[in-house]
């Protein structure tokens, strides 16, 4: 897609999109600026269709010169980056019904106080993410219109051109990372094995400047003392893989951090087997790993000034004669023992080794991301992730980055009253709480048990928004969301 900047409309494009505020005067001024011969009829139709410029409203004018599509943005004082993300998503929705390769975007009827680079970043994210579809296993639909914009004419003041171009490029990269994560989550578990994830990591390192990777097989994992990880992996005939990606900036690194992703490529529940309804979408239990890989796919283009370690313990949690049994005890690489009281609370067990390994890399900060508990969905619903941390500065920065990305993250309490909820009578810690209440909090305390107090740590429980059972917003279709990629990239970029 080529961006072509213009200051005056010259009707080179077949479809011109014009965002407009929720203002009768602004809409009338917009219509009059195009000098339609049937202007009165157009204005009359505005009234009959009750177009007021509210968010999501669209008004279409066809003539022999071009098609004009007015998109409502809502009120001026409430405009946000998310509104612009939605505007371009509505553009994509229209272009799925109208085939064209030349498109225009006229922005002067929305005098946003937001920086031009932020507006552009949001527009690019919305357009690319809304254009996404996962159909590699479907026959081609002959009547389907695929979005294929060759030229995008941007009508904007010359003073904002440089900022807009840079913001658009950044938004396109953000969307690329999220798209990679979506693809991985959407893969069926028969293909999305630990070895598949490992191959993806190798490809990323091969294609990405400044990124290297190590893949550890079962023998090396065992030699490192990762008994917790191997305990969960032992029920599957798919070999476990431990993935360690490293990004190093071109100059001196300002900090060293780890991104840890839960990598259960399929979760049957183990011997505490799930009902079929609960197992159907358990290919998504590697969404945390997908987020890490989506981030690493584009790190070299974002160029953060920090050293970043991406860590994934990839395996399946299966029921078999060799599967771990309820009540078994495993030992992680720190020598801490875990009572596996319930085999369907497996992700936190594998993460205990990932967190331990991360600390051996000398990092100062760890952010782990996991589809960890059903309790977080009970607490926050399907569209919000929970953020757990004892580090206020770190959690505030992550929430700020999430707001910029338009991703819903809500801070949850790490209340000390629940710290001992995982107490075991036969091991150092138990993998489920002693009460069904507050399950996402006791799970977070379980993870914190394996992180030294000297490390800044945060945990995102993304069990709800990792996968959309229905469209979450105009740019997020049903399926893998790629949740967290843009939030974390915003966080890293601003370090």
Task: Write a structural description.
The chain contains 15 helices and 19 strands. By secondary structure, it is an alpha/beta fold. The protein has two domains: 2-158, Leucine Aminopeptidase, subunit E, domain 1; 174-493, 3-Layer(aba) Sandwich (Aminopeptidase), CATH 3.40.630. The strands form four sheets. It has an eight-stranded mixed beta sheet, with helices on both faces. Strands 1-6-5-2-4-3 form a six-stranded mixed beta sheet, with helices on both faces. Helix 3 (81-95) packs parallel to helix 4 (116-130) and helix 10 packs parallel to helix 15. It is elongated, with a radius of gyration of 25 Å. The two termini are 30 Å apart. The model has no long low-confidence stretch (mean pLDDT 95).
Task: Name the descriptors.
eight-stranded mixed beta sheet, Aminopeptidase, single chain, alpha/beta, 2 domains, 21% strand, Leucine Aminopeptidase, subunit E, domain 1, 15 helices, six-stranded mixed beta sheet, 495 residues
What's the quick description here?
With 495 residues, the chain is an alpha/beta fold. The protein has helices at 24-33, 39-48, 81-95, 116-130, 161-186, 194-207, 218-223, 227-233, 276-279, 287-302, 347-359, 375-380, 392-405, 439-448, 485-493, and strands at residues 2-6, 15-20, 58-62, 67-72, 102-106, 151-155, 211-216, 241-247, 256-267, 307-317, 328-331, 337-340, 365-370, 385-389, 409-411, 429-430, 456-461, 467-468, 479-480.
């Amino acid at each position: 897609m080529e961006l072509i900047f213009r200051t005056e409309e010259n009707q080179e494009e077949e479809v011109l999109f014009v965002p407009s505020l929720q203002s009768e005067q602004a809409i009338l001024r917009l219509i009059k600026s195009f000098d339609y011969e049937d202007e009165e009829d157009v204005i009359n139709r505005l009234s009959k269709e009750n177009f007021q410029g509210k968010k999501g409203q669209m008004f279409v004018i066809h003539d022999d010169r071009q098609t004009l599509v007015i998109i409502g943005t809502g009120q001026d004082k409430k405009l946000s980056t998310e509104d612009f993300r939605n505007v371009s998503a509505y553009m994509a929705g229209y272009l799925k019904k109208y085939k064209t390769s030349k498109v225009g975007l006229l922005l002067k009827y929305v005098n946003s106080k937001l920086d031009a680079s932020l507006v552009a970043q949001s527009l690019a994210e919305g357009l690319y993410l809304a254009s996404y579809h996962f159909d590699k296993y479907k026959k081609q639909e002959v009547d389907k219109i695929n979005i294929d914009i060759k030229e995008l004419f941007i009508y904007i003041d010359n003073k904002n051109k440089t900022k807009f171009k840079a913001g658009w490029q950044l938004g396109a990269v953000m969307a690329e990372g999220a798209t990679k994560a979506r693809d991985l989550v959407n893969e069926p578990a028969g293909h999305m094995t630990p070895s598949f994830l490992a191959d993806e990591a190798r490809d990323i390192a091969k294609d990405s400047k400044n990124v290297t990777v190590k893949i550890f097989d079962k023998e090396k994992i065992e030699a490192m003392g990762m008994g917790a990880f191997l305990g969960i992996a032992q029920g599957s005939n798919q070999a476990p893989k431990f993935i360690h990606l490293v990004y190093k900036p071109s100059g001196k690194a300002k900090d060293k951090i780890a991104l840890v992703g839960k990598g259960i490529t399929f979760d049957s529940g183990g011997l505490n087997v799930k009902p079929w309804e609960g197992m159907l979408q358990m290919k998504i239990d590697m969404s945390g790993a997908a987020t890490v890989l989506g981030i690493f796919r584009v790190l070299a283009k974002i160029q953060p000034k920090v050293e970043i370690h991406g860590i994934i313990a990839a395996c399946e949690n299966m029921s078999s004669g060799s599967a771990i049994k309820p009540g078994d005890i495993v030992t992680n690489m720190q020598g801490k023992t875990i009572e596996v009281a319930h085999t369907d609370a497996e992700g936190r067990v594998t993460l205990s080794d990932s967190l331990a390994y991360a600390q051996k890399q000398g990092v100062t900060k760890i952010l782990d991301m996991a589809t960890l508990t059903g309790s977080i969905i009970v607490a926050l619903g399907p569209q919000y992730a929970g953020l757990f941390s004892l580090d206020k500065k770190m959690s505030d920065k992550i929430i700020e980055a999430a707001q910029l990305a338009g991703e819903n993250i809500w801070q949850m309490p790490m209340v000390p009253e629940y710290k001992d909820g995982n107490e075991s009578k036969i091991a150092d810690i138990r993998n489920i709480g002693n009460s069904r209440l507050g399950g996402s909090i006791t799970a977070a305390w379980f993870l914190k048990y394996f992180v030294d107090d000297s490390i800044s740590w945060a945990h995102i429980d993304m069990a709800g928004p990792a996968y959309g059972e229905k469209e979450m917003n105009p740019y997020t279709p049903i399926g893998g969301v790629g949740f967290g990629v843009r939030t974390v990239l915003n966080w890293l970029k601003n370090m």
